[in-house]
Amino acid sequence: MRDILDTDALQLAALIKCRELSAVEVVQASIARMQLLEPTLHAFCTPTTEQALADAQQLDKKLARGEDVGALAGVPIAVKDLISTAGVKTTSGSFIYQDFIPDEDDIVVERVRQAGAIILGKTTAPEFGYSGVGHNPLFESPRNPWNTALTPGGSSAGSGVALAARMCPLALGSDGGGSVRIPAAHCGVYGFKASMGRVPLYPGCRDERYPGVSSWESLEHIGPMTRSVADAALMMSVIAGPDMRDRHSIPGGDVDWLAATRRNIKGLRIAYSADWGYAAVDPEVRAIVGRAVSVFERELGCIVEEADPGFPDPREAFMALVAMDTDLVGMRRLMETYGDKMSPHLVAMLRQNWSAEDFTNAITTRKAVTNSMWRFMQRYDLLITPTLATPPFPLYMQGPEIIDGRMVANNEWLAFCFPLNLTGQPAASLPAGLTSSGLPVGLQLVGRHLDDATVLAASALFEQAQPWIHHKPAVLQP
């Protein structure tokens, strides 16, 4: 049989359920890979390997008794350190919460546990998630498995690293401005941000005991990160669906997640925007994504046109919305005590003198971007862009200062991601190819509002036409 750690979650769950493999065997393989690579990669800030083995043993006993163990039966999963786990440290990458142990699970953690997944530990993220890269003041920086001198992207940094290094086949990330899609692109894996409300999020805000431990309620999504599209659909079948704890959650039942990956997309109209009409894009990224786009027309029978949605750069509005969704009072109070131990870019955001007009202007811009996008998507079934404007870059940077010969702000490399958090549309990052130096580049597929199924269908067919699973990062090369 092929290496356990090269096997996708669908196959692993089936093998465990029919008892050709035990959950303990699978978890032991994951732990062995972690022990080998974690000293270099630092994907996990809080491993829970002893508990994982105990959970795997219990699952095997349930199987022996003929009990149902769920859709994710015995499959190892990594959980981002911003997502609450009862009884397991959740630091949010901050000295402030270095010893914080939640007393309840987030909804998605409840659901993957109930479905039989085995949690390997918490994965490293930047402080409170306020960054598109992975380093934080508390832990070693996660390193890109394709080149350990480079960033894996963020903020679901460790989750992307764990997947690419084949420590596990499933991971949970959160995406407030691209944080599932960014590390998926930089690590050469698949990341899916469903439509706003598909996957419920809780707690949206803790109480006064835990200032700052909150989501960006109007922007945040929790989503699956996987090595295959089918595994993302499997995870969505477990974590999607309404919950009364999230006022943004929407009714379920309109998407058959696994069936969506088997649909045909021949004849669909696809728009391709290489740069939104304003973004600086690395020439090699542009070329790789351009070649990948041709697959949809040449091999999948779609009609592809180059077109831009037509909205101006909404970056300033996005940053204001992040501040508006932040517990400014609580975090500014924390900054007075811990400021010298906090990330400089986070401190700068907290010190900015935000005004009511900043926030209302941002809300108005979000409405304008959303209106531009729904009008644009009336003409197209899907939109394709690069996921990111650059390949992976060196560690400990917030972003490159020069892209394609242009001086840029250090967050402009994220230009393609955060607009989809303004609109709430479904979006996925797919591996599009490798640069001349062997670094992964991502392609972003965007669907109409609530048309998650078409994004999954197109992702699955692209994966069949241009497979990526056989590409292994440098740390796994002999």
- Please state the overall shape, judged from the principal axes of the Cα atoms: globular
Distance between the termini: 19 Å
Helix content: 25-40%
Give the beta-strand count.
13
Strand order of the largest sheet: 1-3-2-4-6-5-12-13-9-7-8
- Average pLDDT over all residues: 96
Largest sheet: 11 strands, mixed
Name the CATH homologous superfamily: Amidase signature (AS) domain
Number of domain modules:
1
How many helices does DSSP assign? Answer: 15
Q: What portion of the residues fall into strands of 2 or more residues?
A: 5-15%
- Return the CATH topology: Amidase signature (AS) enzymes
- Architecture in CATH? Alpha-Beta Complex
Q: List the secondary-structure elements in sequence, H or E.
A: HHEHEHEHEHEEHHEHEHHHHEEEHEEH
Structural class: alpha/beta
Radius of gyration: 21 Å
At the first level of CATH, the class is Alpha Beta
| Low-confidence runs | none
Could you characterize the architecture of this molecule?
- This protein is of the alpha/beta class and 478 residues long.
- The protein has one domain: Amidase signature (AS) enzymes (Alpha-Beta Complex).
- It is 35% helix and 13% strand.
- The chain contains 15 helices and 13 strands.
- The strands form two sheets. It has an eleven-stranded mixed β-sheet with strand order 1-3-2-4-6-5-12-13-9-7-8, with helices on both faces.
- Helix 4 (107-114) links the parallel strand 2 (76-80) and strand 3.
- Helix 2 packs antiparallel against helix 3 and helix 10 crosses helix 13 (356-377).
- It is globular, with a radius of gyration of 21 Å.
